[in-house]
Design brief:
308 residues; alpha/beta; Spore Coat Polysaccharide Biosynthesis Protein SpsA, Chain A; eleven-stranded mixed β-sheet; 26% helix; nucleotidyltransferase activity; Nucleotidyltransferase; GlmU-like; Nucleotide-diphossugar_trans; NTP_transferase_dom
């Protein structure tokens, strides 16, 4: 079924190897709410009409059991499988591959169930009401077919106290549009500096630099452009069983080829995520504080209909 409202696409097929479990369905809120329930709650209030879960086959039933009863009567719901054979012709399938194909492949897996503007988020990141509101406002306004967006977050607000992180560091122009992203690895705060360490190379990064947290807004044309690049990726990576196809790679390519523009939206005020087991307590405390401040009701789904 097609909706005239934007769709929220949730990437929930991750393996959670560093966390040690299915963090997509783990409870973090005061009433055992998962992180992604807050994004769904915010999306309903922001006027989204559908939510699409990208999941692995082995967790499909777990995800349905966890969420359908809570949200099925409040927003249209779809489930899509991302597997190692999804959209991969037989000639490119490699039985030795165990690593997922990445975020852009996950998005592409949803091309048959989304015909409207859509937002993309990770299941294990809390993006904040402000970010979802800004995405909803952008995606419900008339835009050019190649006008996309992302929510930018200051680097200092998206670090982990329990280990290094990888972040897409953004460059922008005077119009507030993204001009390119560079993936920086092993980022952490060291004394008063924020640095990225790659082998012997150490790069200091301004802590106020905007970064991508995989909080995107796309027009439907993004699917066709991604599919073109997916075919090229498969051919170029056929002998590399660890190669991944990422959203930032596609976006950088579109910008470089002048085939799209990406507006950096303000609104990345509150973010926290789960990468390591020790992150759980921090996230639980942060969510509890939001409930206590009245940002969310005592029980997230206590109303008959969200926003009513």
């Amino acid at each position: 079924m097609q909706t005239t409202k934007p769709t929220l696409l949730i990437l929930a097929a991750g393996m959670g190897s560093r966390y040690g479990g299915n963090k997509q369905i783990d409870g973090f809120g005061p009433n055992n709410e998962t992180i992604l329930e807050y994004a769904i709650y915010d999306a309903i209030q922001a006027g989204f009409g559908k939510v699409v879960f990208i999941v692995r086959t082995e967790i499909l039933d777990l995800v349905k059991d966890r969420f359908l009863q809570k949200i099925n009567d409040q927003i249209q719901v779809e489930f899509v499988i991302q597997s190692l054979t999804s959209l991969v012709p037989a000639a490119y399938q490699n039985p030795e591959r165990t690593k997922p194909y990445g975020t852009a492949h996950a998005v592409l897996c949803a091309k048959e169930v989304i015909q409207e503007p859509f937002a993309v988020i990770n299941a294990d990141d809390f993006y904040g009401k402000e970010a979802i509101d800004r995405l909803g406002a952008f995606l419900t306004q008339p835009q050019a077919d190649n006008q996309h967006c992302m929510v930018g977050y200051a680097l200092k607000n998206v670090l982990s106290k329990h280990g290094t992180v990888n972040r897409g560091v953004c460059d922008s122009n005077s119009k507030g549009e993204l001009t390119g992203m560079t993936e920086r690895e092993k980022i952490a705060r060291e004394d008063k500096k924020v640095v990225s360490r790659m082998g012997e190379d150490v790069l200091e990064i301004d802590e106020n630099t905007p970064v991508s947290m995989n909080c995107w807004g796309f027009q439907p044309s993004f699917f066709a452009e991604t599919e073109k690049r997916w075919k090229v990726f498969l051919e170029e990576s056929k002998d590399n069983i660890k190669a991944e196809f990422y959203i930032p790679t596609v976006v950088n390519d579109l910008i470089a080829d002048r085939q799209a523009s990406v507006k950096i939206l303000e609104g990345g005020e509150t973010w926290f995520g789960v990468t390591y087991p020790d992150d759980k307590e921090t996230v639980e405390e942060a969510l509890s504080a939001l409930h206590q401040r009245g940002v969310y009701p005592v029980r997230l789904w206590e109303q008959e209909k969200v926003g009513m």
